[in-house]
Amino acid sequence: MFLFLVAAMVVVIAAVTLAVLGSGDGSGGPATGGLADAPPDRLDDPLPRDRPVGPADVVRVRLPVAPRGYRMAEVDDVLDRLAAELAERDARITELETALAGAQALALHKDQGPAVERD
Predict the structure, then answer these.
(1) CA–CA dist 75, 62 (Å, integer)
(2) What is the pTM of this model?
(3) Residues 6+ apart with CB under 8 A from 70
(4) Which phi and psi angles does 67 have, rounded to 5°?
(5) Rounded to an integer, what distance in angstroms lies between the CA atom of residue 63 and that of residue 41?
(6) In angstroms, what CA-CA distances link 71 with 2, 40, 42, 63, 116?
(7) DSSP letter assigned to residue 114
(8) Is 91 helix (H, G, I), strand (E, B) or coil?
(9) Residue 25 pLDDT level (bands cut at 50, 70, 90)
């Protein structure tokens, strides 16, 4: 009885090995196709470096998940970059609004022209 169990175990192990390593098409060659490669679990910084970040860029960001959640360092890097670009934009907007207000005031002053008194 013991020899029968050992022989059965050897047959099962051989069958599993052939099923895993075999191609399944009867040629005996390695399997082709199969599962697609897993995406890397590191952030491939999807934010553009050659232009300002846009809303669509932020929507496309997918942060990799670690065994216990997101990798804090990578999340911090993305958020730091977004914060820096937003601060830069806000400063530029303030600068342009100030320049526009100055130009409008100058244009208004020129349109009124010198005051001429008539008697």
Answers:
(1) 10
(2) 0.45
(3) 63, 64
(4) -55, -30
(5) 9
(6) 52, 14, 9, 8, 71
(7) -
(8) helix
(9) low
Angle at the Cα of 75 from the Cα atoms of 69 and 76, rounded to 5 degrees: 130
Task: In whole angstroms, give the CA distance from residue 109 to residue 90.
Answer: 29
- Of 63, 59, 19, which Cα lies nearest the Cα of 45? 63
> What amino acid occupies position 42?
R
What does the pLDDT look like over 31-81, one tens digit per residue?
566 666 666 666 666 778 888 777 777 777 777 777 777 777 888 888 888
Per-residue pLDDT reduced to its tens digit, 82-100? 888 888 888 899 999 999 9
Q: Rounded distance, CA 102 to CA 114, Å?
A: 19
pLDDT of residue 61: 76
Tally the residues of the chain: 119
Q: Which two tokens stand for residue 43?
A: 């952030």
